[in-house]
Amino acid sequence: MKKQIEEESQENLNAEMLAAISKLTRAGFLLMIVLILLLWQNYSRLFGSKNDGMQVVQTALPILSPTAQKGKDLFKNNCASCHNRDMQSNLTGPALGGVQERWAAYPRTDLYQWIRNSQALIDAGHPRAQELWNKWKPVIMTPSSSLKDEDIDAILTYVEEQYAAR
Questions:
Q1: In this structure, what are the phi and psi dihedrals at residue 56, rounded to the nearest 5 degrees?
Q2: Cα 27 to chain centroid, rounded
Q3: In whole angstroms, how far apart are CA 47 and each of 78, 156, 166?
Q4: How far is CA 159 from the centre of its chain?
Q5: Once rounded to an integer, what is the mean pLDDT over residues 137-153?
Q6: What's phi and psi for 63, nearest 5 deg?
Q7: Distance CA 166, CA 164 (A)
């Protein structure tokens, strides 16, 4: 009889343990589902998308035209040490986004001369060059006399495409 009571007690204990394990398993499973849902909702914030609360907008690098791609390489080699790559913020030199508009009152060749040798244009008394010099002195733009017109056009295309994409 004592043995039977011990066996029943052991069976009750086993049943209670199985019930507790079952409850814990269900709770763990529900917790896992909640965590997955939270991760799914916040995936864009964690991995680089912008979420405005309503729709997810993936941030992607703009696709550059072939001319702008050439300009990107030229920009890196000739301009990036002083001009910010976001084209909107000043660095050692001014932000370049909209540069063609700011020079629109002058012949395009003036902008080319400025890019090749700003100091010569300042010394010649060019009004836009003087304006920039007064704002940025004593910083002197590094001359880029080896750039051809097509190189400068490529850089300007890259600048404008980058600027428009932001």
A1: -95, 130
A2: 41
A3: 33, 32, 20
A4: 15
A5: 95
A6: -85, 125
A7: 6
13, amino acid identity: L
Instruction: Encode pLDDT of 45-65 as tens digits.
Output: 555 545 455 554 555 567 899
Confidence band for 22, pLDDT divided at 50, 70 and 90 = confident
DSSP string spanning 24-82?
HHHHHHHHHHHHHHHHHHHHHHHTT-EE-SS-EE---PPPPPHHHHHHHHHHHHHTTTT
Instruction: Judge whether 166 and 74 are in contact, CB under 8 Å.
Output: no
Beta-carbon contacts of residue 153 (< 8 Å; ≥ 6 apart): 67, 71
How far, in Å, are 66, 141, 155 from residue 60 at the CA level? 18, 32, 21
Q: Which amino acid is at 99?
A: V
Phi-psi region of 53 (alpha: psi -120 to 50; beta: other; left: phi over 0): left
DSSP per-residue codes, 117-165: -HHHHHHTT-HHHHHHHHHHTT--PPP-TT--HHHHHHHHHHHHHHHHH
Backbone angles phi, psi at 54, to 5 degrees: -115, -45
